[in-house]
Specification:
heterodimer, A: 113 residues, 11 strands, B: 111 residues
Chain lengths: 113, 111
């Protein structure tokens, strides 16, 4: 069974640009979570989608947004990139609203110059 | 904000020794999970312990949970060089919700 996949692996953008990161959950999983792992800040929760709806959002500005498609894959968009947005962005999926185990993808390394 | 705090921040041991990492948290939880991360890559799920459980085993891993002290420990027995990684605890407060991660323990197992 394929795990969570993310693309691209690496992304280099300049300040002010927009970045789009993609995630495909494990087959049968309906919930997708996004986390940011920035140097010195640890792993921080960004967004949670389930059944196409945004269920919860972390303490991030509105320029961080996303969506979940009918096939449960998800997209994270970061507008007006700032240098401090440079981080590893991790996507995780879980099997249902009541399942607590989250399985993570390999991440997208975003570098903003 | 990070709820969990791992202790120690870094641990270096010899192959074959046991490694113990601790995690403390601040609020009531439903579950506590432990993850491993190799060199800034994705996280690998190790074990989940529910708030009504006190101890759980999986292979060479043993996890304990003390909800009265709001703490958990991860024991890796007979460590191997391949166990070298960062280990994180993560808690969730309600079912299927966001995970709050600790700062992590960097474990180095020397061959």
């Amino acid at each position: 069974e394929a795990g969570v996949t993310q693309s691209p692996t690496h992304l280099i953008k300049t300040r002010g640009q927009q970045a789009t990161l993609r995630c495909s959950p494990i087959s049968g999983h309906t919930s997708v979570y996004w986390y940011q792992q920035a140097l010195g800040l640890g792993l921080q929760f960004l967004l949670w989608y389930d059944e196409g709806e945004e269920r919860n959002r972390g303490n991030f500005p509105p320029r961080f947004s996303g969506r979940q498609f009918p096939n449960y894959s998800s997209e994270l968009n970061v507008n007006a990139l700032e240098l401090e947005d440079s981080a590893l962005y991790l996507c995780a999926s879980s099997s249902s609203f009541l399942s607590y185990e989250q399985y993570f993808g390999p991440g997208t390394r975003l570098t903003v110059t | 904000s990070q709820q969990g705090e791992e202790d120690p921040q870094a641990l270096s041991i010899q192959e074959g020794e046991n490694a113990t990492m601790n995690c403390s948290y601040k609020t009531s939880i439903n579950n506590l999970q432990w993850y491993r991360q190799n060199s800034g890559r994705g996280l690998v799920h190790l074990i989940l312990i529910r708030s009504n459980e006190r101890e759980k085993h999986s292979g060479r891993l043993r996890v304990t949970l003390d909800t009265s002290k709001k703490s958990s420990s991860l024991l890796i027995t007979a460590s191997r060089a391949a166990d070298t990684a960062s280990y994180f605890c993560a808690t969730d407060e309600t079912s299927g919700s966001r995970l709050t991660f600790g700062e992590g323990t960097q474990l180095t197992v020397n061959p």
